[in-house]
Specification:
Bound molecules: adenosine-5'-diphosphate, zinc ion
Number of helices: 35
Number of strands: 17
Structural class: alpha/beta
Distance between the termini: 36 Å
Length: 688
Amino acid sequence: MFLRRFYGYTSFRPMQLDVITSVMSGRDTIVLMPTGGGKSITFQIPALMSEGCAIVVSPLISLMADQVAALRANGIPAATINSTMPEAENRATLDALYQGKVKLLYISPERLLVEMGRWSRDVKISFIAIDEAHCISRWGHDFRPDYTRLGALKQQWPSIPIMALTATADKLTREDIARQLSLSSPALFVSSFDRPNLSLNVMPNPGLKGRINVISRLIEAHPYDSGIVYTLTRKSAESINAELIKKGFSSAVYHAGLSADSRMEAQRRFREGKLQVICATVAFGMGIDKSNIRWIVHNNMPPNIESYYQEIGRAGRDGLPAETIMFHSVSDIITIEKFISESGQEEINREKLNRMKEYVESPVCRRRVLLSYFNEHAPCDCGNCDVCLNPPAKINALIPVKKALSAIIRSGSSVGANMLVDVLRGSVKADIISRGLHRIKTYGAGRDLSYGYWQSIILQMIQTGIVEIAYDNGNRLTVTPYGRSLLDSNEPLMLADPEMLYESRAAKKFVREKPSLLDKLKQLRSELAVKSGWPPEYVVSDPALETIAKTMPRTLDQFAAIEGINDIRAVMFWRPFVKQIYKELSLPDSQLKAHKSIHDTLFLLNRQYSVADIARIRSIKQTTVYNHIAELIYDNLFTDFDRVISDKQVEEFMTLRITYPHDAYDMFDKRYGDGLHNVALAVINTHS
Ligand code: ADP
Ligand code: ZN
């Protein structure tokens, strides 16, 4: 009932109901679900069903205001207290909390620890939900010292259930969470980390121009949607952004080097659906809650699988297909190695990098590799990754590999990957000449092959252990014993064909037809978003929008029956969408015009909303609602009116009319609500 009324969904996803039941039974509960798995509902619904207010602890202050806005838009009494809000507003929220008017309070950990001392008596707390709970653990990838102090919660309120939610799966972190929060035999729910709607694609970096081409094609395939390009450095975020703008796309940058204002501005435009692309360092994403991101590009190889999975997980949270592409190169590995050697946790981080490299090189279904990393087993190949769809063609690369090996050895192992390519291709760069590298025998021996081709061969040589990078010696390449053994070998050496790698599925040309109904509906949604001040997917989610395009609802009832559209949204937005559908079908809209404002009121009355709720939802005066009700009673459309006015009130009104013929209406309205006398009149005239 809550699911339908507040969210417009007809069924729970796997595990959601189990989690809700556990929390409602008062048990401490740990929930592990991937990003987009649907964690929010598992604490929001118990909050609505319980007496008192649920506290939601989250480290993402920038997100809180958004989440609260989304909840309020769904008619859920939520609020937030945090340092970015004006203090006066925080105090008003506290007042509302004391009066029991808040069902969900979002708060940062440090603020909760400050406030909790004062609350204990005045506030009834139903339970505490700790979102992003992995932040409590030093084992996790996002440790936050403030979180460790949340252990105090159980001491102060031993009987209040605690719920810990996270998208990070590993066992160490999980146990750490339970221990640090002093949870008492918590119920544990682990849902599958599989996100089958995300396509997984990995390809060697084809150079700036090539990358821009791939990104452009993604934008052209999703012109009314948005995507993210993640880069390792601010500089590359800037340069890709500049290229995309040059091509006429709406793009912006986001990184820590910008002022807080311009970051907020970029984030706002992205959230509102006004950007096709945002080029960002990984700093971007923690602070966004957008369910309809349709693609993610990694300009560089991420340092570990956890971050990679979390970042691609930001796409397609609404469950619709989303594409992900990762570019990787030798210099990525070098950069990451540098970070690792400065990280103080070299061993763990290097192991994590190795797992990442394995994923990138994988000759088998990538989803299988990913899931096995999270200790899950995929029963079969996914059919939605580049390896499944386009198994890499192999070539015998013995000759180019021997040329490269020889060049490395003849240079006295003094070159890095880029310079090696320059030598092989016979570049006349000053650096090459001054070092005398143009005199070695293999100089120019690989002129016939492109720069990207050589990059890919050398990358594969590193990945397969033919050469190594000397990180402690200027990232020069050295030949391994295995590499040396190849020098006199005549066995074929099979590597992935670099030509084919660039032709991977991700780079295929997308063909665009003329705007479909869905495109027009998206356009319309953007306009409604601007008017309502909400991000587009709060107006109507992408899956719901697709259903509208498919089922073409022509009445309010049909519109409200769509999965993902709740009553409030239905009443607010059905008319413009249905109008567009009439236009699409070239139908005269007389039927639409016959549906008057009073019928919207009737719709809400039939769903048991109170007069005050209806006035608020429809932004009309209470008097107007009473007028509608009176009219509906006259038309015999609303017979259930004792919910609005009791028999006793009707009798009282009749008596007043006799005793004070001039002032009866006013007196009655003053007692019971502006405009109620109209309802009384309608009842008397039709039912006595
Ligand atoms: P998480 O917090 O786990 O990353 P969310 O709670 O934000 O995920 O949910 C992701 C998306 O799935 C949201 O768009 C949400 O509205 C949708 N969703 C959640 N539960 C359901 C459900 N039972 N049916 C349909 N959609 C759902
Ligand atoms: Zn696959």
